[in-house]
Amino acid sequence: MKKLIPILFFILPLLGFSQDKVLTKTGTAIFEASVPSFEEVKATNKNSGCVLNTKTGEIVGLVFMKGFQFRLALMQEHFNENYMESDKYPKGVFKGKIDNFDFTQLTTQKQDVTISGNMELHGKSKEIRIAAKISKTGNTVFLTSNFDLNTDDFNIELPLLIRSKVAKKVNVTLEYKLQ
């Protein structure tokens, strides 16, 4: 009994704290850097992680670069080895906050929100603001976003041979079902 009391004092606050967060490890991240008249440059990662603090609106997103799946294996190899240098920079991380967030106001209707934060990718960081849509059904929060990133902002160099075939402005789509 004497050992149980300190354990309870340690565990109970953690249980209460964990209820302030919703998360997923199976979110979807899609990027597209296609240009007209050339091969589609698009990949999907279905193991994107996201944690949302329902009290503060703080949010963290994580994507492992090697999790992106391309239609062509050669594109995936070039993406990981030559452009993203995935062994050296294995993940992309976003840390931010949903502006004016109030969890109690979430409904089944999608609401437009702005998320401000820091994107870290390829060893570089950049402050960004992105538009998103958020809704809640039961205990599940749905968050989607579509925004652009510029390869120059993260020192991602494209070889001269393919510069005309891959867009510098990369469209990113995120879909999270947080529980």
UniProtKB/TrEMBL annotation:
Entry's Gene3D superfamilies? Lipid/polyisoprenoid-binding, YceI-like
What the entry lists under Pfam families is as follows: YceI (PF04264)
Q: Give every Lipid/polyisoprenoid-binding YceI-like domain span.
A: 63-176
Signal peptide interval = none
Transmembrane parts of this sequence: none
Domain of life assignment: Bacteria
Protein name per Swiss-Prot or TrEMBL: YceI family protein
Q: Which organism is it from?
A: Flavobacterium amnicola
